[in-house]
């Protein structure tokens, strides 16, 4: 025992332990990327036990979402996209993607994320790894074709281009087009990537 009455070793959770864990995770994701970051390494960097990290975060995915301040939970996005038949996948993808962007808060946070990704190689790498694991890989598995990863990559490029056009550049008439009209027009194009 030490003079403070505590046993030596890892400190217990304190008032800002969660914040310290998030900061350590953000640094680790930035330095090592998504794949090479582990819960144990984050715990070590934050000066806490790995069990305490698990107390606050159920998984590395959840820690990533919090550390990167994502405006959405990619696992929920993937679940919504995959909830239905393959024949309607294109329409669901567009509906879910636009739904994330359409609220004022969602649009603000997505714009910030998009700008960060295009201006920072580190942020782009981290986001690419995380989004690939949590959204692109599950959708590729759902499509289940030999070139599924290429198809999903083309879908992502189409959607990112559309987001830049509508929400960042605000090119008319795309910027003010009705949401249902966009889904009706873009859904079949995305479905071509799925089944064409």
Automatic annotation (TrEMBL):
InterPro entries (alphabetical): Homeodomain-like_sf, HTH-type_TetR-like_transc_reg, HTH_TetR, Tet_transcr_reg_TetR-rel_C_sf, TetR_C_16
Name this polypeptide is given: TetR/AcrR family transcriptional regulator
DNA-binding region(s) in UniProt: 38-57
Gene3D superfamilies (alphabetical): Homeodomain-like, Tetracycline Repressor, domain 2
Top-rank taxon: Bacteria
GO molecular function, one term: DNA-binding transcription factor activity
UniProt keyword annotations, A-Z: DNA-binding
Domain (HTH tetR-type) ranges: 15-75
């Amino acid at each position: 025992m030490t003079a403070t009455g505590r046993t030596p070793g890892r400190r217990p959770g304190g008032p800002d332990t969660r914040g310290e864990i998030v900061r350590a995770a953000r640094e680790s994701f930035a330095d090592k990327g998504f794949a090479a970051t582990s819960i144990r390494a984050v715990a070590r960097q934050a000066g806490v036990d790995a069990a305490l990290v698990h107390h606050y975060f159920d998984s590395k995915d959840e820690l990533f979402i919090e550390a990167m301040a994502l405006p959405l939970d990619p696992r929920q996005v993937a679940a919504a996209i995959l909830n239905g038949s393959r024949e309607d996948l294109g329409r669901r993808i567009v509906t879910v993607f636009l739904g994330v962007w359409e609220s004022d808060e969602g649009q603000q946070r997505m714009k910030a994320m998009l700008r960060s990704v295009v201006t920072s190689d580190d942020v782009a790498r981290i986001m690419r790894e995380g989004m690939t694991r949590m959204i692109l890989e599950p959708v590729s598995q759902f499509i289940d074709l030999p070139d599924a990863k290429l198809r999903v990559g083309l879908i992502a490029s189409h959607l990112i281009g559309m987001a830049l056009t509508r929400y960042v550049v605000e090119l008319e008439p795309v910027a003010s087009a009705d949401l249902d009209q966009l889904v009706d027009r873009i859904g079949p194009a995305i479905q071509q990537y799925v089944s064409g």
